[in-house]
Design brief:
The complex is a heterodimer.
Chain A lengths: L1 H12 L1 H28 L3 H5 L13 E15 L16 E16 L2 E14 L8 E15 L3 E8 L28 H4 L6 E10 L2 E8 L20 H4 L4 E8 L8 E7 L2 E12 L3 E12 L2 H11 L17 E13 L4 E10 L5 H18 L5 H21 L6 E9 L7 E9 L6 E12 L2 E11 L13 E10 L1
Antiparallel strand pairs in A: 1-2, 1-18, 2-3, 3-4, 4-5, 5-6, 6-7, 7-8, 8-9, 9-10, 10-11, 11-12, 12-13, 13-14, 14-15, 15-16, 16-17, 17-18
Chain B lengths: L1 H12 L1 H5 L6 H12 L5 E11 L2 E14 L6 E9 L7 E5 L2 E6 L4 E5 L11 H4 L4 H4 E12 L5 E11 L8 E7 L5 E7 L5 E8 L2 E3 L2 E3 L2 E6 L5 E12 L19
Antiparallel strand pairs in B: 1-2, 1-15, 2-3, 3-4, 4-5, 5-6, 7-8, 8-9, 9-10, 10-11, 11-14, 12-13, 14-15
Amino acid sequence: MKLIRGILGFRKAFPPLGCALTLCLLLCAATALRAEQDEDLELIPDNVLSQSPEESVTVAPEYYRYKLYLDEAASVNIKRDDLAVPLPSGEVPSWDNRLSLDLRAEMSVSSNLSLVVADRLNHLLNDDPELAGGRLQNDLKELYATANSYSFLYLDIGRINFKNGVALGFNPTDYFKKNAVSLRVSEDPSVLRENRLGALMVRAQGIWDQGAVALALAPEVNQDSGQWWTDAGSCGLRMERTNSHSRFLTKISLNLLPDFNPELLYYLEEDRSNFGAGLTKGLGNDVIVYVEWSGSNRPDIAAQSLAEAVESGAIPPAAWTSYVDTETHFRNQLAVGFSYTEQINRTTHVEYHFNEAGFSHEDWVEWFETGNTAELLLQHPATRDLADGILGLLWTPRKWSLEAQEPLSRHSLFLRTQWQDALTVSLDLTAMARINPSDGSFFVQPKAEYHIRKDLTLNLSSNLFIGSRESEYGSLNPLGDITAGATWYF
Amino acid sequence: MKRLLLLIMLSVLSPAAAVGGSAETADEIVAAADAVRNPGKPFRLTVSLLEYREGRPRDKMLLTVYSKEDPNSGQYRSLIRFREPPRDENKLMLKNGNILWFYDPASKSSVRMSPQQRLMGQASNGDVVTVNFHKDYRAGKEGEEIITDADRKQRRCHKLRMEALNDAVTYFRIEYWVDTGNYQPVKGKFYSESDRLLKIAYYRGYQEQLGKIRPTEVIIIDGVDNKLVTKMNYSDYRFHDIPEDWFQKEYLPRFKGE
């Protein structure tokens, strides 16, 4: 403004010169404006502009679609020597190698009927001499037919992976998750979900503007081992893992208000009812908050795992009743958290997990005290069998919590951060951690993926279980591993 | 002579004043430009994204976008299917207002995303999905300018300043140049809430698609790292009957393509 006032004053004093100066300045301003416009244009490399437009991509009607990839992973395990509570049996291998061929395909039989198949064939090898030459394990993850009627009604029959829940690290309402992971290829829940077995079920679903309703019935299958549907051999279907009991699930998703879309679930397994709910909410452009809850009348993890071990014949009946609280009452499970995305496209999830059926701090103290006693008994040949029995009982809930994909501790924290195109082009970095806040121990998994070509990804990751000798993660063997791998997409 | 000089001067700086201006409001101009970019009826198109770093092509993505206007909000809802690269094939992203879900058929799980999270390299979700700017922004005229478009041609444009009406948008403020003759968008500069320049976009490759001359190419220059340029090509436009349930999260596992 001062400049303009100055020019006007100059124009009054020297009219012809003033006009010329005004014109010059305004022309300069116009030139500067255009120069700025041109500067923007100069940022576009010539080859981007000169390249002829891409050829039009026309998509033909699809009768099938598939995704096929080969996944190779070689791991070196870092063993922990000084375990607070020895493992009852089994040596941790020094190294593992896994080669997997993964296929997912969908085929339209007619306009209203389609078939879905998802299968993974694994070749597994480690330093166990009994596994010389490796072994094959085929996991038929899904095989089902889906029919559509009245455009909004769907009926599915077959082996279906029915996943529920809005949280990332623990899904209390994902009722079909228990025992569904047949090969634990990673500790990352998002990887485990890609590698789990569906349950044999009939599912009906209606989807409307106002929401959706799903009903699923998964019957119990004959558990006799050696049947083609239960066989744990190379090509067995392992249905004893996914259909050990009859189960029923109903799920209602409601679109009540903008960004208020709760999910309500009712799940019945044997005679035990579970109630669940889930909700997400966006806050601004970069934050999502979410909560997922489930509650049921159930025993705690120790009692439930041991009861199931008795049922399966793994431990003798009533051997454990004096060690655990068999009382059943209403117990809650909760996952509450948020995700935050930064401008650089790094997204971090932070979650708190509550499992009322899990171990309290006192339960952990008792677990280690009993383990120490068992270790002493292990020193004497006369009491070695007793010690083995106690150790078997102690490790049963820990194994069970992994299989059930439930946190073993009552309170835990989960963090996961993913950074796409981090530091350099085509490099994705992910880090995940599970923390036991009461003993300070934690599990951490850093992972780097480099997309060297559009059909080839290299990756390097490590799993580390860190903590004091008598802590949740510090008492595990192995201490960790380092894995290098590659994924080739066909 | 003085008057002649003044007239030249004004025509350089403010062509609107020289031609006498027009009665249409800034919001009407934005709505007319939206109608150039977006067909009024539900449609699908194929979007290819090619990223360049210092002029060298790197990542390429291919997407199919299905869009339909929400009768209540007037804003578009979009379902995006990833077709390339192979690692992302058949993944889906649903955008319904400010609610975004990402679905991966491999894990059968839907994950809620924030609008800021990007799945397509440097292009934001808002760059890829169909957006009616006039529903989300209040526009004001800043006169007319002759600017150079991406084909190095001079275009007389309305210069508009657009400010977000709600938090559900990708960009807080936009400077937008729209051709005065045919309402074709020519250029946009997109800013964050802190008024940082995030993107510069040039619209080009105008061709007849679905009954109107529409842009088939958008060149996006990253405002932070301007060595990064993304070229978005639109092709295979088709009107497509899109049922309402396609925009439900529960529908994502049911999506079969075409």
